[in-house]
Amino acid sequence: MKRKDFIKRIGFGASAITFSPLLISCLDGNSVQKGDFQLPLALPSELTGTNSTLNASPSNIQIGDSYSLSAFQFNDSIPGPSIRKKRGDTVQIRFENNIGQESIIHWHGLIVPPDMDGHPRDAFTEGSYDYEYTINQRAGTYWYHPHPHRITGPQVYRGLAGFYLVEDGEEQALNLPSGQHEIPLVIQDRRISGNEIVYNPSIPDRMMSGFLGDLILVNGVPTPFHDVGPGYYRLRILNGSNARIYNLAFENDTPFTVIGTDGGLLPKPIETNELLLAPGERADILVDFSTGFDQDRARLISKLFDVPSGGMMGMQNMMGSGYEQGTGFSIMEFRITKSDANTSFELPEQLSKVELPKESDARTTRPIQLDMQMGQGHTINGRLFEMERVDVEVNQGDTEIWEFINNTNFPHPMHVHAVHFKVLGRSGNRGLLPTETGWKDTVLVMPSERVRVIMKFDAPKGLYVFHCHNLEHEDAGMMANFQIH
Ligand code: C2O
Ligand code: CU
Ligand code: CU
After folding, report:
1. Whose Cα sits closest to atom 1 in ligand 1?
2. Which run of H or E residues covers position 270?
3. Residue 109 belongs to a domain with what CATH number?
4. What is the mean pLDDT of residues 363-384?
5. Pocket residues for ligand 1 (CB within 6 Å)?
6. Is the pLDDT of residue 14 over 50?
7. Which of 93, 205, 238, 254 is most buried as measured by Cβ atoms within 10 A of its Cβ?
8. What distance in angstroms lies between residue 325's CA and the mean position of ligand 1's atoms?
9. Which residue has its alpha carbon closest to ligand 1 atom 3?
10. What ligand has the least distance to the C-alpha of 441?
């Protein structure tokens, strides 16, 4: 049964269908945090120098005016400092772990040797880990976050995540909006109890929906505002939430242009007025604030969307925490108050030369079954993660098709380390999203869907993981090892 049908049957009026915050408050007695757009957006600082340190440490901080958070932070900031590098750069970063629990950093979207990739078996509790690798891949909006087994969710939630921006000549030549016209935005939902941001997943949160909250933070600030001028801006949006999917749109359905995703620029820009973005995914978009918005303001929202039912037990979607997946939210407000117009930029027809693999290049098609097993939670090919067990073996240089088959009632954003892939297709009627015309590293597999992706394993030989990027699912074992031989 679809969620909307369910709502109708339990007797909410038509207004509840389009005004979902009401729905949340009806279901669990909590009121949704209305976006008030009172606080200015914060922009992450940048980590500079070739030889730098990321120091993770705990502290109690304030979020906005009203909430306290027992945080973990990289270099005393939330989000962590952005790393900005060029293709070809050799990167040396020391990770100092002072949070009193095991951790390791993963550079999500970067293709690096296995011992540089933040495999959970490299997690450590005290001291530091030295990373050194050369960036040999396309420009893109990547990110970094911890990756210890079972506790990635709480560490990211408490603040450990940051952007990792890679630039190259091809991108440079496009003259995309930059400087103050290029804005990284990490969107994260948080749950509050009293005046505190808490992480206390129940068993259904862990085993079913993942941990959903109803306070939306952008770059660590609750539903902020930001002043812009009438012209093009480049928004690099990261869904850094543990479990929540956003259906990005502007309040009045003003179109925007998708230019890139997980693995960098798309072949061509694509105009749309909404875009689903699951945990771990990135959307690089251009917005022209000079046209299509009323009253000098543009509100970025997440529009209500349906989570398709996974069959007989579809109602489980409704029975988790009450902070339901698919609900509509305000995210932030752009105030079109500045005078600088940035009119020199023209949207090119062609963005990037993308050489995508052909289906006929693939040696194998590998089914990856995603199941829900009573008492265990979500499994990959029937099993929970084990640190040293090799689940999939591939040969270096081979191209394979992996088919993710979601037999559960929950969305699973599936992420594969050490590769970028192309989404070939998905069953059902959703089709491909604008972001799925380019290189991806994370793909949303809705209940009942089968999604086929193609990828070539060119990374250095060794052991890597793939997993669901719903962090509660991942922590509960929805992860597997693959070995490149
Ligand atoms: Cu963003 Cu394996 O993770
Ligand atoms: Cu990753
Ligand atoms: Cu999942």
Report:
1. 108
2. strand 264-272
3. 2.60.40.420
4. 94
5. 106, 108, 145, 147, 280, 415, 417, 465, 467, 469
6. no
7. 238
8. 21
9. 108
10. 2
Average pLDDT over residues 83-110: 97
Cα(417) to centroid of ligand 2, in Å? 5
Number of domains in the chain: 2
What are the structure tokens assigned to 21, written together?
């915050």
In the DSSP assignment, the letter for residue 251 is T
- Has residue 221 been placed in a domain? no
Asked if the model's pLDDT at residue 394 lies above 90, the reply is yes
Residue by residue, DSSP assigns 421-465 as: EEEEEESSS----GGGGS-BSEEEE-TT-EEEEEEE--SPSEEEE
Residue 363 lies in a domain: yes
Looking only at the bridges linking them, the beta strands covering 225-228 and 275-277 are: unpaired
- Give yes or no for a cis peptide into 79 (omega within 30° of 0): yes
Q: Which domain holds residue 472?
A: 359-484
- Pairwise CA distance, residues 50 & 83, whole Å: 10
H or E stretch including 473?
helix 471-475
Return d(Cα 71, Cα 484) in angstroms, integer: 36
Identify whether the C-beta of residue 73 lies closer than 8 Å to the C-beta of residue 156: no
Residue 427 counted as domain residue: yes
Of the residues 116, 147, 162, which one is the last residue of a structural domain? 162
In the chain, % of residues over pLDDT 70: 89
Domain boundary among the residues 162, 183, 212 is at 162
Amino acid 319: pLDDT: 44
